[in-house]
Amino acid sequence: MAGPWERYQSEPDKAGPWSKYVEPTVTPTASGGQGELSVNNVVRSAATGVPIIGGALNQMNAATNAALAPLLNPLFSEENQLKGATFSERRAESLRQQQGMDRDFSAKHPVVDTAAQIAGGVAGVAPAMMAAPAAFGGGGGSMAARSMASMLSGGTVGGADAAVRSGGDLNSTGIGGLTGALVGGFSPAIASGAGKVSATIADRVGGLSKPTGALSALPRPAANYALETVGDPARQAALRADLDRLGPQAMLADVSPEWMGVARGAASQPGMRDEIAVPLLTRDAAKNTRLRADMDIAIGAPPVPSQVEAGIVAGQRDLGPQYGEVFRGARAVDTEPLAHAIEADAINMRGPAQRAAQQVRGMLDIHGAPGNLDPNPGTLFQTRQAIDGMLAGETNPQVIRTLSGYRQRVDDMLGQAVPGIKDVDAQFAELARQRDALGRGQQVLDSGRTAPRPQELAQEVQQGALPQGRMVGPSAAPLRMRQGARAELDRVVGTNANDPAALQRLVKSEGDWNRDRLRTLFGPQADDVLNAVDRETAFYRTNNRVTSGSDTAMASRFGDFLDHASTPSQIPTDTTIAGLILRGAQKAGQKALGSNAEERAARFAKDLGRLAVAQGSARDQIVQSLMDTARRRQSLDPINNAAREVARLLLASSPPVANQRLLAR
Fold first, then answer.
1. Three-state DSSP state, 32
2. If both were cysteines, with which of 292, 393, 452, 655 could 158 make a disulfide (CB 3.0 to 4.6 Å apart)?
3. How many C-beta atoms lie closer than 10 Å to residue 29's C-beta?
């Protein structure tokens, strides 16, 4: 026998006791009526748009209503005969009512319903996209990789959402997964395009990237190319720092490969070579004068080593009268102990040392009277001078040791016999130290074994300043060393100025030794010298690569830009009468509108080429305009990013909305 639920289902139009506790779908509700525009219906619509969870809400509501109905409705009491409705029957009827409410609201207010569901979808997807942006095609990586990740996540969400909404129906689940995968796969590309379109619209409305100042006369395509070369703020700062380091003669072509390519590409255009090459060649012709002037300012004018040395030798000669004065009060010398010691060495020694001992022994005798020692202190003084001469060219260690010992004994005997000679000797020795320091300074840039290490040179300079003998005050040896180094720099520049790259190798060397050695001698000003050499090397390379280089790859990007600019827009034509008419109209239109592409390309090359080789204040104005326009253009990035993220959210939330529409039919 059929129960009340079965009878109600088979005869839904007949009023009966079941209708008392089963509310018809069309009965008005306290929220404003079935399908009416109310807060309750809008909230329900937004909730159902949440992926996966939204599809289960009606199921959960129906289950809750079915479970609570017997407790809340007295018609379900034990003594009432209408208790035959099972939980499943109550749940099915409640679900029917829930879905009916959704359909009615969607039918009456489709726009509000769709907007609410999209809002719910966005609210549901946003936390997941923020937690794992890479899974939804965000973050870095190639477009292909992001599209694949977005396709996988979109298919997963779409399939799971359809499964929940359809109660596990395989066909609906497959359709939902396929829809989500397709939308997800195209989502990164669509979102990127939406961001660019939004930024472009904002740019056109606000004119944010419109060139101003020194760039205001540039056509937008040429200005866009120029702006692409300055890049992000870090690159802009590096560009400006390089220009400041190289000075007012620097060009954009010196510090940017892109602008060097512009100069090279522009110079290859008919009629443009002189406009690009003349500034470069004019600057190159002044490199020697410019480099010498900068070096003179930094470390002083260069001396002539031979003249300095001649002055030192003249100073030593000028000490002759002082030696004559001290010898007037000299006493006779007894060289017998020294002679006996040398004779003993001559007997025991062999080879060069023996011959040196015999030679010195003969110097102690009276001239023409061998074996008779000369007591004249002047003869002993000349013996010391002769020993110094022998030591000057000697390399045999044993001979040097022997002669040095003899010289010391002779010097001691002179100090005792000739009062005041040590004071004159100290002056002579100081001049000799200066002469040696002058030669040493000319070796500091060497790279061979004779070149001092930076720490060795620092020690030499420190010790060279200390007075020796009876001298008072610092020695001039460090000054002479600086003069020698400065003279050597001038020689290197003079013989290599036409090839700054070679000059750079010689002055800076491969490592940091020359920099450290020059700093030891000249202090921080040495950096100014090296920077000047670097600057001229950069100028030299730019001139060579732009005016005479064979590197075509350098200008390829600018060449591609000009090729694109010189490709006129074409409309499809053929060889028919209609095609000939169209082709003629196209050419006439291009001419009438002044859109000759080759002329545009030539104008772009001319305008950008001039920018690439500008100098001084003109260059600074160009750079400032580039930076200002780039900063304004960067203000479009937030618009681009925001539009892209909104598009991604909308696309990610669209499969659940589609599933809801599909399953509601």
1. coil
2. 655
3. 13
Q: How far apart are CA 459 and CA 463, in angstroms?
A: 6
Coil, strand or helix at 575: coil
- At 390, list the tokens: 């022998």
Contacts of 169 (CB under 8 A, 6+ apart): 162, 163
In the block, residue with structure tokens 């009827």: 93
Kindly report the number of other CB atoms within 10 A of residue 626's CB atom.
24
Over residues 233-284, the pLDDT tens digits come to 888 889 999 999 999 999 999 999 889 988 988 888 888 888 999 999 999 9
Band (pLDDT 50/70/90 cuts) for residue 28 is very low
Give residue for tokens 């009438």: 592
In the chain the first and final C-alpha atoms are separated, in Å, by: 34
Is residue 25 predicted with pLDDT exceeding 50? no
* Alpha carbon distance 581, 83 (integer Å): 87
* 52 Rama sector, left if φ>0, alpha if ψ -120 to 50, beta otherwise: left
**Cβ pair 364, 373 in contact under 8 A:** yes
By DSSP bridging, strand 369-373 and strand 365-366 are antiparallel
Other Cβ atoms within 10 Å of 148 Cβ, number:
16
Cα distance between residue 614 and residue 623, in whole Å: 10
pLDDT score at 140: 67
Exposed/middle/buried for residue 208 (C-beta within 10 Å: 0-12, 13-18, 19+): middle
DSSP H helical ranges for 548-570? 556-565
Q: At what angle do helices 556-565 and 597-612 cross, to 10 degrees?
A: 150
Q: Is 282 exposed, middle or buried (0-12, 13-18, 19+ CB in 10 A)?
A: exposed
> Counting beta carbons within 10 angstroms of the beta carbon of residue 465, is it exposed (0 to 12), middle (13 to 18) or buried (19 or more)?
middle
Q: Read off the tokens for 525.
A: 């000003």
* Alpha-helical regions (H) of 301-396: 305-318, 320-327, 336-348, 352-363, 377-392
What's residue 473's pLDDT?
Answer: 74
| 407: nearest Cα among 432, 382, 430, 429 | 382
**CA angle 276-277-283, nearest 5°?**
110
17 secondary structure, DSSP code: G
Give pLDDT tens digits for 485-509.
999 999 988 888 778 888 888 887 7
